[in-house]
Write a structure and sequence with these properties.
This protein is α/β, with parallel strands linked by helices. It has helices at 3-7, 20-31, 46-53, 65-78, 113-126, 173-179, and strands spanning 37-40, 58-62, 83-86, 99-104, 127-139, 149-152, 155-157, 167-171, 183-195, 198-209. The radius of gyration is 16 Å and the shape is globular.
């Protein structure tokens, strides 16, 4: 059992509506006729469901059995089909050039930097030539930056709340350029919102496999 098996049933971690970034990205995929899309670290499945609803061949992958169970339940209830696989995001059991696109939201930064880089290396490997990827990252400007126990540079473990013990890595544009060195970066967008007096700040990266 992982920490996410405990966390995902909490309503705040299992919203129904997709992120606007994924909605926009899906529109791009449809225009470019990119079809087979992997939602990596799919959690409770909202983006797998959305991708399938948009007529894409969707696949969802997560380490959490609870997350995959919740995803499967939503798909069945809506009469949708998607392949679901249990895996660690930095070790993908797919052959090279398997997918037209990969989405990975609210997830990749819950690792040390080495794990993040390995995940991006694996995403690059399983993408087809010119395949597209959408990934988001926590910005150092966000309110929770540097809180908790320092694990390594810019990586901290929460000490309280639902995410107690879970790693959070915070980044900036310079590091993102380095992490995506093997990709062709299309856009790095900093999105910020104020929530009950707290600044929430994250980067969304769109890139392609050259």
């Amino acid at each position: 059992m992982t920490e996410w098996d405990r966390i995902l049933p909490e309503r705040v971690y299992s919203p129904e509506e997709p992120d606007q970034t994924v909605v926009d990205f899906t529109g791009l995929l449809r225009r470019r006729r990119k079809n087979l899309t992997l939602d990596l670290a799919c959690g409770a499945g909202r983006h797998v469901v959305y991708l399938a609803q948009q007529g894409l061949a969707a696949a969802g992958a997560d380490l959490s059995r609870m997350g995959l169970k919740m995803t499967r339940k939503k798909l069945v209830e809506l009469g949708l089909t998607a392949a679901l696989v249990r895996l660690a995001m930095n070790n993908l059991p797919f052959v090279d050039s398997s997918f037209d696109a990969v989405t990975c939201t609210r997830a990749i930064y819950h690792q040390r930097v080495q794990g993040i880089q390995q995940t991006l290396t694996e995403i690059h490997r399983v993408l087809k030539k010119d395949g597209a990827v959408l990934v988001d990252f926590l910005s150092k400007r966000t309110h929770s930056y540097a809180k908790g126990v320092k694990i390594e540079a810019e990586t901290f473990a929460e000490t309280e709340g639902h995410e107690r013990g879970i790693l959070h890595h915070y980044t900036d544009r310079e590091e993102l350029q380095s992490l995506f060195k093997d990709f062709r970066i299309i856009d790095i967008d900093l999105r910020e919102t104020g929530d009950e007096g707290y600044l929430r700040s994250r980067f969304t990266v769109q890139a392609a496999k050259s």
